[in-house]
Write a structure and sequence with these properties.
The complex is a heterodimer. Chain A is α/β, with parallel strands linked by helices. Chain A has nine helices and ten strands. In chain A, the strands form two sheets. A six-stranded mixed beta sheet of chain A has the order 6-7-8-3-9-10, sandwiched between helices. By secondary structure, chain B is an all-alpha fold. Helices cover 71% and strands 2% of the residues of chain B. Classes of the chains: A alpha/beta, B mainly alpha.
């Protein structure tokens, strides 16, 4: 199995702040990899660094065999990376339909993917004409994921999909992410260890801007000491 | 409930303002005066709207306060006037402009070449600046020798005022042609092209990191090739095109003048954004000073080229008829005789000033509205106003959209200038005045709201025109016999007063967002 994404010893900055200090991991194709770690450890910045939204000053980001660090974010994304950011970043002034439409990279993307997206999130169909402002948190999360599915993305970066959602909706979200991971590779940032352990096959732990451990999720689940040490709870 | 109240409170305030307006307006004014004043208000409002809408589009997406917008409005007027009154000058200038653009538009190719050159950072900086300076120096050398037929500010009989006056009388003086004397035509064309290409290469070398992933295909050469072809054709057929334009109906000449004014705005906007604004996105204060400075520079250039005295832009034939059944009382008469005025409710109304300008304003409002609401680019603009990073993370080149919006916003301003000039005349102070009105209109309507720009401009236009009218006929003050005539300085002051009232109640403006 080949690696779709390789992050090699990157150091990243947001403004003048040195956030990532040597993060290093690989993402095998066709799997779900969870980035774990405490608040402020640098998980979100890692996702942003892959997309070029945080500036990578050292190290390499290799996506599908191509070095992408230093490229403008829109070019990196256009190579086939979908981004579901923290807090969803739904466009409030656009309708749900427009929120999906804007993610088209080629004309007709949305029409092609429509059935796939609505099989995954049947609820979206009901409020297609509502504006982004009028959606609840769970609906926004569905829309944010659906938006990343419109274009043909081989890699999805999903940041905190369960944040602020009711348990029932979290279950639904887990099903959806598992289903879509059959089509594309997923890198998941997740605070909720239970959610992460249900979904991911691999894990990477980030601590104070450094990647400190990685491996198979089922090994981590068995290693209570490591969970306690890096994640503080279990 | 809360949002409901908020929406209602806005509506109530708007209604109160309009009701107060109507109440005061109706006192001591005949129905005819009210109609004319309202139409004039719409006219002023339309022109203000064009500038304000451009300003608000640019500010909404790019967070740039383009304080040069007033100067650009003025440039639009002067450029349009030149095309209309002195087509020969326009055609003479066209060749160098197109050739320079052709040289610069090969920047994609230069970027590709520049990325192949390996140099130490310091050496690269020095060499690129040397190239830029050498290119500009050579350009200046060629341009000063390039023959351009132009008016003479020092000789009254060849000044813009005289040309305007003669054109207004229907007597077109066709000025003497100028010929290549100081430089051969071939050398001039080659010099323009080479010098602009050298500076473009210098610029590409300076920002070579940005262009590393651009690919080259034949489409990248289409635009430069067309510009080059256009420039050469304009040079070769200079005399023919000039005499054709002088013989043309002034209606068509007017349309061409407006189009050129818009295009020059779009070009200037694109140039400003890519070369000067772009490096300063992380420094808003510098940007503010930059646009303010550019406005002042533009004003000085206009004064140097076209002079300080005020002159007119004669209206095209379609709006100047006086014979026959004029002033017209119905549409058929109006169209048949091209009347300059019509009778409406017993009052004489000027067709261009009080009917044509408002109609154009409304058309632009609708077109831009549709563009924002229905097109993909409009969708990207609306999304980008909220969250630029997310738009970029979807794989959309936001920078290109920035350039486009800046160009469009400046194009609206120059359009406004060219549209207003036949009605207001041309003077170097026209820009400042309008910038002030537009800023007040935006504060009233809401800074980043497009409908707000329209509403604010309309209110500003109406209040100005009512104050002007009252300056002539006087307001009978309530409960007294005193008749108050507002003096001219009260006209702008009244708009400021309206702004203060609105902002005290709604700090975000009438239709502005709450953030």
């Amino acid at each position: 199995m080949s690696n779709i994404l390789e992050v090699k010893n990157i150091h990243s900055f947001i403004n003048q702040f040195h956030i990532l200090q040597d993060v290093d991991f690989v993402v095998p194709e066709g799997s779900i990899t969870a980035l774990l770690g405490r608040n402020g450890a640098g998980k979100t910045t890692t996702l942003k660094s892959i997309l070029g939204l945080a500036s990578v000053r050292e190290g390499k980001v290799i996506f599908e065999g191509r070095e992408v660090q230093g490229m403008p974010p829109f070019e990196i994304a256009a190579l086939g990376i979908g981004f579901v950011p923290e807090h969803r970043a739904i466009f409030r002034d656009l309708s749900v339909e427009e929120n999906l439409k804007i993610a088209e990279r080629n004309k007709g993307d949305l029409d092609r993917k429509r059935t796939f997206i609505f099989d995954l999130f049947p609820d979206l169909k009901k409020f297609l004409n509502l504006r982004g402002t009028d959606l609840s948190g769970g609906q926004q999360q569905m829309l944010a994921i659906a938006r990343a599915l419109v274009a043909d993305n081989s890699l999805l970066l999903i940041d905190e999909p369960s944040e602020g959602l009711a348990p029932v909706i979290i279950e639904h979200m887990i099903d959806a992410i598992r289903q879509l991971s059959e089509q594309s590779t997923v890198v998941l940032v997740e605070q909720n260890f239970l959610v992460a352990s249900k979904l991911a096959k691999y894990f990477v732990i980030i601590e104070e801007g450094k990647s400190v451990a990685s491996g198979l999720m089922k090994d981590l689940e068995a290693d209570k000491a490591m969970i306690h040490r890096y994640l503080g709870a279990a | 409930m809360k949002t409901n109240l908020r929406k209602n409170s806005k509506a109530i305030i708007i209604l109160v303002i309009i009701a107060a307006f109507l109440f005061v307006a109706a006192r001591g004014m005949s129905g005819r005066d009210v109609l004319i004043t309202v139409l004039r208000g719409f006219s002023t409002g339309s022109v203000t709207f064009l500038v304000a809408a451009g300003f608000s589009l640019i500010f909404g997406l790019l967070d740039v306060l383009n304080l040069a917008q007033g100067t650009l409005y003025m440039i639009g007027a002067y450029v349009g006037w030149t095309v209309y009154v002195r087509p020969d000058t326009f055609i003479d200038v066209l060749t160098p402009v197109l050739l320079i653009l052709a040289g610069f538009s090969l920047s994609a190719l230069w970027g590709r070449l520049a990325s192949r050159i390996q140099l130490a950072p310091k050496a690269r900086k020095i060499i690129s600046w040397l190239l830029i300076l050498a290119g500009l120096g050579l350009l200046a050398l060629v341009l000063t020798r390039y023959p351009i037929a132009i008016w003479n500010l020092n000789n009254y009989s060849e000044s813009p005022i005289t040309y305007s006056y003669m054109a207004d009388q229907g007597l077109r003086i066709i000025p003497a042609e100028v010929t290549f004397e100081k430089i051969s035509p071939f050398l001039a064309i080659a010099g323009l092209l080479v010098s602009s290409a050298i500076s473009a290469f210098g610029i590409a070398l300076l920002n070579r990191n940005e262009s590393r992933s651009q690919t080259i295909n034949w489409r990248k050469f289409l635009v430069p090739a067309l510009l080059l072809l256009g420039g050469i054709l304009a040079a070769v057929f200079n005399a023919q095109i000039t005499s054709w334009m002088f013989a043309m109906s002034t209606n068509w000449l007017f349309v061409i003048a407006i189009l050129i004014a818009i295009l020059s705005g779009v070009g200037l906007g694109a140039l400003m954004e890519t070369t000067l604004i772009r490096p300063l996105y992380s420094r808003p204060i510098y940007q503010l000073m930059l646009t303010l400075g550019l406005g002042t520079i533009g004003l000085q250039i206009v004064q140097a080229v076209w002079g300080r005295p005020e002159f007119v832009w004669p209206k095209p034939e379609f709006f100047t008829g006086t014979g026959g059944a004029c002033p017209a009382t119905n549409l058929a008469d109006l169209l048949e005789n091209n009347c300059s005025t019509v009778f409406l409710l017993g009052g004489r109304v000027r067709v261009y000033d009080e009917i044509f300008i408002p109609i154009v304003g409304i058309i632009v409002l609708i077109v831009v509205w549709i563009l924002l609401k229905r097109s993909r680019i409009g969708m990207i603009i609306r999304a980008g106003v909220q969250d630029r990073q997310m738009v970029e993370a979807l794989g959309i080149n936001v920078r290109r959209v920035f350039t486009l919006v800046f160009a469009l916003g400046v194009g609206l301003a120059t359009f406004g200038g060219a549209l207003a000039a036949p009605s207001t005349g041309l003077t170097p102070v026209m820009g400042e005045r309008l910038l002030l009105s537009a800023l007040i209109a935006l504060a009233i309507g809401g800074l980043t709201s497009f409908p707000g720009a329209a509403l604010g401009s309309l209110l500003v236009g109406l209040i100005q025109q009512f104050m002007i009218k009252y300056g002539q006929i006087g307001i009978p003050l309530p409960f007294t016999d005193v008749v108050f005539k507002p003096s001219p300085p009260l006209v702008p002051a009244s708009t400021v007063l309206l702004m203060v009232i609105v902002l005290l109640i709604l700090p975000g403006g009438l239709l502005g967002s709450k953030e």
